[in-house]
Amino acid sequence: MPPSPYIGRFAPTPSGFLHFGSLVAALASWLDARAVGGRWLLRMEDIDPPREAPGARDAILQTLERYALTWDGEVVHQSQRHEAYADVVERLFRQGLAYACTCSRKQLEDYNGIYPGFCRDAGHSRDGAAIRVRVPELSYRFDDRVQGPFEQHLGREVGDFVIQRRDGLYAYQLAVVLDDGWQGVTDIVRGADLLDNTPRQLYLQELLGLSQPRYLHIPLIIQPDGHKLGKSYRSPPLEPDQATPLLLRALRALGQAVDPSLIGATPAEVLEAARQQWRPEAIARQMTLPEADLR
Q1: In the chain, how many domains are there?
Q2: How many CA atoms lie within 13 A of 224 on its CB side?
Q3: What is the pLDDT of residues 225-243, one digit of tens each?
Q4: Are residues 62 and 96 in the same domain?
Q5: Are 17 and 68 contained in the same domain?
Q6: 85-130, pLDDT tens digit by residue?
Q7: Do residues 273 and 191 share a domain?
Q8: What's the domain range around 146?
Q9: How many CA atoms lie within 13 A of 44 on its CB side?
Q10: Alpha-carbon separation of residue 162 from 78, 166, 180, 209, 231 (angstroms)
Q11: CA–CA separation, 145 vs 29, rounded Å?
Q12: Same domain assignment for residues 275 and 158
């Protein structure tokens, strides 16, 4: 059987260690690729050094290995892709599709995250300024494999958005689109916290002549106290010696059938059994776990 053209990826940010929510997203992404014989790439989204946690990069790689979530090829680091990002920013700026913005956070704090266009036609120099891409007065829509249809009007609901920050660092929206295109990613499986970022990425894909991947946004895990599971709130790092029980809990969170005989299995055996029975249609649009499944 020839390899599937499916190319998936997992792209953690080294601002902290992997937690249970990270595991659920990584596992879903890995299974979705492996179930069809596809490739699964690993990309370190390390474009924001001030937010990085010491030791997080190595810890992420070691955790994935302990949990048998093996990847194909070399790990790509976005910190080594600055030249590619710079070329695109320069091209968009030269074509008039992007412009320099000197607005401060204080100036924008009353606009609910929607850029009002203060600098759109100001003609500012790029020195010490952020770079925003001009958005059309259009809606962008896609069908998510779990969340269903999603639509957002870029002009009314987002406004021109930043592709390079005032401090010179490149924005997530630009880097993720360029790297997914460069790596030939066909399917993106990630957390639903990024769902409303997707229309901006669809626009950049269109602007840059890149193919649109399929999307599957895993619902965020809501804890019994109503808080979302994440790095910022009571989400302990994954324990290396708990790989099998945590993989089984992650499978249950994804709505997958779990054979009781796998309790004593190795992580690799759990993953192989799950790969053979992967049913993405079983993933719920919302996910709330009992306290026991968060430990």
Answers
A1: 2
A2: 6
A3: 555 655 444 468 898 889 9
A4: no
A5: yes
A6: 999 999 999 999 999 999 999 999 999 999 999 999 999 999 999 9
A7: yes
A8: 82-179+202-209
A9: 21
A10: 17, 9, 19, 19, 24
A11: 13
A12: no
